[in-house]
Amino acid sequence: MRSAQRTRRFVTILATGALACGALTAGTAAAATPTPGGGLAHPEQDHAGGAAARHAQSARPAVAPDGIPGLDVSGWQGNVDWNAVKANGAEFAYVKATESTTYHSSFFPQQFNGAHDVGIVRGAYHYAIPNKASGAAQADYFVDNGGGQTGDGLTLPGVLDIEDDPYVDTDGTNKCFGLTPDQTVSWIRDFLNEYHARTGWNAVINTFTEWWNDCTGGSTEFAADHPLWINNHGDTPGPLPTGWSRQAIWQWADNGVFPGDQDVLNTDTYKKLLAQKR
Predict the structure, then answer these.
(1) Which residues lie below 8 Å from residue 79, measured CB to CB, with a gap of 6+?
(2) Fold assignment, 4-274
């Protein structure tokens, strides 16, 4: 997967040089405490694919799947040694910026800018809590706190990470934030529309197949314009949520050579993501 031939192909696509990835230097960040005025209890711990253990369909792959290798990190990883990350072979990284409208990761600048500084393609993601504030309000908060960077050849579109409610769901029965499928679809639509209005980008959607099909009623409304980032710590990315025939990104493990979660990105999708806005 990391052969010289594939690396040369990636360099041609990106026209910025070879990229890569690696390890964590600082200690793990402490769990956040509740904040006044309705703040959330553990946003440092909430991250893309956080409910992966319950959703895993089979054993994780023995080796990294084919695709462009990358990672996603949050405040839980603390400061990241991006030079080591690059040396270990990662070529893209997604960084958690915000959650609801009350949390902005204090590690976001080091993680997001650090990836850029060593030539790694980076993007930001928002962890959705739909029962705390409207989709538009959370999109605005995301854009205003790290999710609004313009495309520069090293920046990927922002991500809406929407999955099980981490504050009440412990067994898979309360995962939909108390919303009906129609309410959930409306919330997602408001977030995506506001994000597009503010940035010109179509956001990537990060989710689980089970969550999507249950909590949106299997909506196909967003599949045509919004790439899918699927979380499945099994040996295949599928089955995919209703509406998508292929994923753009696959989070396939929660640990490995890179800090945080391990991801791969489809080569043919990558150029399209980078070209959304320049």
Answers:
(1) 24, 25, 26, 107, 110, 111, 114
(2) TIM Barrel (3.20.20)
Chain centre distance of CA 133: 20
* Domain ranges for the chain: 4-274
3-class state of residue 109 by DSSP = helix
User: What are the catalytic residues?
Assistant: 72, 161, 163
Question: What tokens were used for 242?
Answer: 């209703």
CA-wise closest residue to 135 among 185, 174, 169, 175: 185
18-39: pLDDT as tens digits: 323 333 233 333 333 333 334 5
* Interval 110-129: pLDDT, tens: 999 999 999 999 999 999 99
Specify the pairing of strand 228-231 against strand 249-253: parallel
pTM of the model: 0.81
End-to-end CA distance of the chain: 28
The sign one gets for the Cα dihedral 72, 78, 84, 88 is: negative
Q: What is the pLDDT of residues 53-96, one digit of tens each?
A: 556 555 677 788 999 999 999 998 999 999 999 999 999 999 99
- Quote the CA–CA distance of 250 and 204 in Å, as a whole number: 12
